[in-house]
Amino acid sequence: MSKKISVSKRAVVFSKTGGLCAYCGIQLDPEIFAIDHVHPRLHGGTNDIQNLLPCCHSCNSSKGTKGLEEFRIYVAARAVAGPLFSLAQINYLRAEGAFPLLGFNENHTFQFERQCAVAA
């Protein structure tokens, strides 16, 4: 599978969220935005348009090879605690039921999900 995504496919991906980062919602530059694989390539994800979302470099870097739900809990924890906890610690806290006690929102919604809800 080629790593390179064509210019035409990049334009389609960019338009999926109206030029906003699919995760945090900031306005993207159409020339330098990142493309995220919702299902990471490392875990079998493809370059199919359905698996691609436009995002800022910060969100793309933070998501890395995390799946969508793993990234969701990571963002929820970071929003409250900053870089205090590692991903392993965040997963442990969630498994132990500590998220509500710490004020972590397990139901954090990403920009693309909010856009889908409005469109529905």
From TrEMBL:
The keyword Hydrolase applies. Pfam families: HNH. GO terms for molecular function: endonuclease activity. Keywords: Endonuclease, Hydrolase, Nuclease. Residues 8-61 form the HNH nuclease domain. The keyword Hydrolase applies. PANTHER family: OS07G0170200 PROTEIN, SLL1193 PROTEIN. This is HNH endonuclease.
